[in-house]
Amino acid sequence: MAETNPGQRCLVTGGAGFIGSHLVEYLLASGHTVTVIDNFSTGRTENLSHLDGDHRLQVHEQAIENHDAVRPLFEDVEWVFHLTALADIVPSIQNPLDYYRSNVEGTMSVVEAARLAGVSRLIYSASEIRSDFVD
Ligand SMILES: NC(=O)c1ccc[n+]([C@@H]2O[C@H](COP(=O)([O-])OP(=O)(O)OC[C@H]3O[C@@H](n4cnc5c(N)ncnc54)[C@H](O)[C@@H]3O)[C@@H](O)[C@H]2O)c1
User: Fold this and answer.
1) How far apart are CA 102 and CA 104, in angstroms?
2) Where are the alpha helices (DSSP H) in 77-121?
């Protein structure tokens, strides 16, 4: 990340979470523009409050599995960092459909929105997959 060109348009799913909010801070400090999509299920507004007023940051409260709602947010985005997750083990056994919708359908929604928008890089934290759509 140290050699990245400044001024990229980035989108961070889960940007109000623990890892996502630190990444958002890093990307802004590196000169990039950042769109956050987060439903604040486990994320917190306080994680981003110190960045309030930075015109390069847009925060959208939305669930990633709501494809029609999130898809327009990917327009003109160059890099996507996909960091949303429901990751608690016992609740995932008690409420498997919630976890399926958020983690599986949500990830498909993000991947498809990125593909349709021609995003050049998709970085997915959970399994460390990186895909090149364009080059
Ligand atoms: N924290 C760690 O030590 C660690 C280690 C390895 C991998 N990871 C992975 O990194 C990713 C992020 O971890 P974290 O610790 O930042 O978790 P976190 O819970 O702090 O952040 C996840 C964010 O995703 C948001 N979110 C969840 N479901 C959503 C949905 N359907 N739509 C929109 N937003 C949604 C939550 O509100 C939260 O802000 C996860 O995939 C996790 O498994 C974390």
Assistant:
1) 6
2) 89-94, 96-99, 106-117
Distance 43 CA to ligand 1 centre (A): 8
Per-residue pLDDT of 78-96, as tens digits, reads: 999 999 999 888 999 999 9
* Angle, CA of 64, 52 and 3, to the nearest 5°: 75
Which one, of 81, 22, 31, lies nearest residue 50 by Cα? 22
Neighbours of 102 (CB within 10 A): 20
Hey, where are the domains in the chain?
10-132
| Residue 38 binned pLDDT confidence (cut-offs 50, 70, 90) | very high
Is 92 a pocket residue for ligand 1 (Cβ < 6 Å)? Answer: no
* Helix, strand, coil tally for the chain in percent (to 5): 40, 20, 40
CA of 84, closest atom in ligand 1: 24
* Closest to 103 measured CA to CA, from 123, 122, 87, 127: 87
Look up the CATH number of domain 10-132.
Answer: 3.40.50.720
Query: For the whole model, what pTM was predicted?
Result: 0.91
